[in-house]
Design goal:
The structure holds two protein chains of two kinds. Chain A has no helices and no strands. Chain A is mostly loops. Chain B is mostly helical. Chain B has one domain. Chain B has ten helices and no strands. The longest helix of chain B has 27 residues. Chains A and B meet through loops of A and α1, α3 and α6 of B. Chain B: Belongs to the ERD2 family. Chain B: GO terms for molecular function: ER retention sequence binding. Chain B: This is ER lumen protein-retaining receptor. Chain B: Keywords: Endoplasmic reticulum, ER-Golgi transport, Membrane, Protein transport, Receptor, Transmembrane, Transmembrane helix, Transport.
Chain lengths: 10, 215
């Protein structure tokens, strides 16, 4: 898993 | 993607286009705070570190590039362009924005989703964006009269985060584990800072008078 939550917002 | 977020992004883009229009059409940046523009350039550079590592969508990537390029172009233009920089209100734009930088970074070290480089810089960009408008609002109060394009610029900039709050409410109710409390609380503070500007902007629009902020 990525070490950060993917930020899908600008 | 939902309509609130798309509307918010379009308002954000519009605010930048209005600012670019003002600077290029009038060849003047009077009434614009260079400090606020520098803070915004930092916000985008700190937030979009994942530009090349996380591909979300073409829209997401293009908008990130547009925000980074436009915000740095505005700072460069206000600092380097010989004609534009002459109209910069240097003696009015005296807000000590380094405090905003330091406070945002300190808070990001304390309050973040995960103590990693990327998450700390993301939280830093969120906190910094919430307060980045302060030098601009102070400058508007000091310079008294606000020209139309500058007023519209600040209006759209404030409206964009208000739509993001609607987006977070919508996502909270439609998505199972959606928790964006750092951005949400910061977004509420950010929009609240515009409250008095929105009030005077509405009054000036209703009475069809020039926008004036009380000193």
């Amino acid at each position: 898993a990525k070490d950060h939550v993917t930020k899908d917002e600008l | 993607m939902n309509i609130f977020r798309f509307a918010g992004d379009m308002m954000h883009l519009t605010s930048i286009l209005v600012l670019l229009l003002k600077i290029y059409a009038t060849k003047s940046c009077s009434g614009i705070s260079l400090k606020t523009q520098e803070l915004y350039a930092l916000v985008f550079l700190a937030r979009y570190l994942d530009l090349f590592t996380d591909f979300i969508s073409v829209y997401n990537t293009i908008m990130k590039l547009v925000f980074i390029v436009s915000s740095t172009a505005i700072v460069w233009c206000m600092k380097r362009d010989r004609v534009v920089r002459r109209s910069y209100d240097k003696q009015l734009d005296t807000f000590r924005h380094y405090f905003l930088l330091a406070a945002s970074f300190a808070l990001a070290l304390l309050v973040n989703e995960k103590f990693t480089f990327q998450e700390i810089f993301w939280a830093f960009s969120i906190y910094l964006e919430a307060v980045a408008i302060l030098p601009q609002l102070v400058l508007l109060q000091r310079s008294g009269n606000v020209d139309n394009l500058t007023g519209q610029y600040v209006f759209f900039l404030g409206a964009y985060r208000a739509f993001y709050i609607l987006n977070w409410i919508y996502r909270y109710f439609t998505e199972t584990h959606f928790s964006r409390w750092i951005a949400c609380i910061s977004g509420l503070v950010q929009t609240a800072l515009y409250a008095d500007f929105f009030y005077y902007y509405y009054i000036s629009w209703k009475n069809n008078t020039k926008l004036k902020l009380p000193a």
